[in-house]
Amino acid sequence: MNRTPSRRGAIAWAVSLSLLSALPPAHAQGAAKWPSQAVRFVVPFPAGSAPDVLIRHVGARLGEKWGQGVIVDNKPGGSGVIGMNAILAAPTDGYTFGFVQGSAISVAPSTIRGVSYDFNRDFVPVTLAAVAPFMLAVPANSPYKTLADFIAAARARPQGIEVADNGRGTAPHLASALLGLQSGAQFLEVHYPGGAQAMQATLGGQTQMMVETYNVVAGNVQGGRMRVLASMGDRVEAGLEQFPLASKTVPGAVAHGWFAVIAKKGVDPQVLARLNKDMNEALLLPDVVAKSRELGTYPRPGTPEQLARYIAEDRKTWQDVLDKLNIKPE
């Protein structure tokens, strides 16, 4: 039997093949329709916290753009570990993402025993969202008028100048430790259960300085009860122009809290690209920038590659500090 296709059949087969090859892949078609349902952001913070308020504000703008709901799912606790695990447990269908703090990525795996996730293995970066530089704040009646004064006093009295933070191994503690390591000063680090207790201790004179983001100290600074000696930011942010950069006095004394959008590995890359574009545009809307500034955070959108480099550098910085402090998982 002759199985050679007829000329007409061959032409039909070739046309069908060309039409099939012209179709976009299935994932591209899905990405083009994304989002077709509500998008969820897992936030490892309690409702009402600065990052929670920020992502809700951004989410409202994204919802308007997408014509879909944006759900903020608060999963606080465990220094961000509970939220990270919730993201890891979610499906990779492109409808669950994380709006997480940097310490959950850069610090928690090295300080909390039993952390099972590995960022590079389990997650992908989408965009850096915002930074919150740490402030070095003293009581209004402090004898130290500049950071140079404070460092000089600490060098003259090793372990004799108390600095408050909100817990051993937290970002403010590590920022203070970094300042000490870079300056050659030895502070007496005093750990409190939270920022409110550290604030009261500093206002009451039990500690000489505290390290926190500006939104935490702003009320007392504006009320004349505290002064900011310096910002540990890597640049002068709008609204913080009156505070000198700590790095001008102590090179390398740069420390931020930061927040980023991440996804579980396996989400469609085209969905991630769309989210990156839309998120970055929303972060720079005037009302979002204004809200962010109220919260003491400063938009810093960018590419996934930029966030990946930022994370790698941040992890190295804090691992070096943890090693020098001999802090192990516990």
The total domain count is 2
Beta-strand portion reads 15-25%
Q: What is the annotated CATH architecture of the largest domain?
A: 3-Layer(aba) Sandwich
Radius of gyration: 24 Å
List the uncertain runs: 1-7, 9-23
Instruction: Indicate the CATH class of the largest domain.
Output: Alpha Beta
Largest sheet: 10 strands, mixed
Structural class by sheet pairing and helices: alpha/beta
On the 0 to 100 scale, the average pLDDT is 92
Question: How many helices?
Answer: 15
| Spatial gap, N to C terminus | 77 Å
Proportion in helices: 40-55%
- Please give the number of β-strands: 10
Query: What's the SSE pattern?
Result: HHEHEHEHHHEHEHEHEHEHEHHEH
Q: What's the multimeric state?
A: single chain
State the shape. globular
Walkthrough of the structure:
The structure is a single chain. By secondary structure, the chain is an alpha/beta fold. It has two domains: 38-132 and 256-325, Bordetella uptake gene, domain 1 (D-Maltodextrin-Binding Protein, domain 2), CATH 3.40.190.150; 133-249, Periplasmic binding protein-like II (D-Maltodextrin-Binding Protein, domain 2, 3-Layer(aba) Sandwich). Helix content is 47%, strand content 19%. The chain has helices spanning 7-22, 26-33, 50-66, 81-89, 102-106, 108-111, 119-122, 147-156, 171-183, 195-203, 214-222, 246-249, 269-283, 286-294, 304-325; strands at 39-43, 70-74, 96-101, 123-139, 162-165, 188-191, 209-213, 226-231, 256-264, 298-299. Strand 1, helix 3 (50-66) and strand 2 (70-74) form a beta-alpha-beta unit. Helix 3 packs across helix 13 and helix 9 crosses helix 15 (304-325). The longest helix is centred in the last third of the chain and has 22 residues, at 304-325. The protein is globular and about 65 Å long. Belongs to the UPF0065 (bug) family.
